[in-house]
Write a structure and sequence with these properties.
The complex is a heterodimer. By secondary structure, chain A is an alpha/beta fold. Chain A has 4 helices and 5 strands, in the order ββαβαβαβα. By secondary structure, chain B is an alpha+beta fold. Chain B has a 5-stranded antiparallel beta sheet. Classes of the chains: A alpha/beta, B alpha+beta.
Chain lengths: 127, 139
Amino acid sequence: MPLEILTLKTIGDNAGAVTVKLTGSLDTATAPELERQLAPVLADPIKDLVFDLAQLKFISSAGLRVFSATRKTLKERGGQTAFIHMQPQIQEVFEIMKSLPGVAVFKDVAELDRYLAARQRSHTENQ
Amino acid sequence: MMLELHATPEEVMRAVETLQEFAQARGLPEKTVFGLALALEECGSNVVNHALQRDPHKKFQVVIESTDDTFAIELRDRGPEFDPTAAAERKSQADDDDRPGGWGLQLVRRQMDEIRYRREAGENILRLTKRLVPAAGVE
């Protein structure tokens, strides 16, 4: 099963957060492609990156490693990686890295939007 | 069922898809199919990336077997002797946040009931077994 990657620069009022929608399988064969496509996204000074996993059907540790590297990059600049719409089986694989610092998991867009709005306020206050 | 595969990530996923079809045809629940696919993906990637160094000329075998109450996946390669179960033990002792190295085997352990490694006649043989729970209402 291939992986489709869709990068959206702005969602709702939360300009500055980038959403990456993944469809299909994030595995040993497709993880390198995600890594390649994330490189230019992370080269921008973004602080929040959201992975939308509504259509992700399969994930292995190769996929978790890409998420983990992204988390590390953003954490180093005071940013955060968030995950939304995780299916139950994906969630189970995810348990392994859910507790890591710099990872946030949300069930839907409303929950995510509240969180991002709060993050935007704190970025602005810090400037 | 026996698959002969080249040492590439794409071939690992070809085996995973074959396993998924086989397990679905056998009527296993989606959650079980996912777990079996994950176990094969992780162990197959290990063989390709470590034992065979992603050399597409090299080959490895995957055997998929199922009885009424078990599902077994066996991986065989002719790479250097390597016991992934022992390697993971060593790694987890030095584990920290930013070293996801041991995640693969942790995931396999969660999905399978038994993981056995043996070295035999120049081959690494890793056998993963899962006990199947009979579906409610059957019988």
